[in-house]
């Protein structure tokens, strides 16, 4: 799985967890828009310099908050039961993945949107995105070897941009069911 960090010193691990716990409290109480590095430092009781050294910027901190659910998703599609996990034909796995990824993205919508606003391209450089992209690319290549799988994987995953999902759901009032049906139609045209 992506994002597996080397072992850390016990005090560094405790500080990391305190920072993440404080960030989650802020998000739960005030929303992701209220998250700042200074606010997290204050809420965790850890110096702001340490928070910056540990995470670099707010987008990296937001992506770290998403890490736990990303790891569960990765485990499900890498080693879980079919059709999401191995053992089903590529087209079925891709369809199961798209539906699961849609729900995953909608569940984390606020954090993903805040991370996107903090840095528009940080998501594409993150380990979780690279793992997901590689997986989708592999399934496309297996289902349709004649297609440009690397580019198509990016374009398909582009449907999960947080700002696009917010636009569809909040501004155009597209239901989750309609969104999932449309993703299925899009995928049907691809594979």
TrEMBL record:
Signal peptide, first to last residue: none
Keyword terms, alphabetized: DNA-binding
Pfam families: TetR_N
Positions in coiled-coil regions: none
Residue ranges the UniProt entry marks as DNA-binding: 36-55
Keyword Iron: no
Protein name: TetR/AcrR family transcriptional regulator
